[in-house]
């Protein structure tokens, strides 16, 4: 059975930062795997 791509991405588990292990609050299908805190990003 084929699944719509939108359903596939919606059902992915939350991403976790590879440095600290916290959940990343961004789209699951993005390429980044490090949170803003570990990247030292300031707003």
Automatic annotation (TrEMBL):
It comes from the Bacteria. InterPro entries: YhfH-like (IPR025432). Pfam families: YhfH (PF14149). This is Reverse gyrase. It comes from [Anoxybacillus] calidus.
């Amino acid at each position: 059975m084929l699944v719509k791509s939108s359903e596939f991405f919606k059902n992915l588990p939350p991403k976790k930062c590879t440095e600290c292990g916290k959940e990343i609050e961004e789209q699951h299908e993005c390429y980044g795997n490090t949170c803003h805190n570990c990247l030292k990003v300031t707003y």
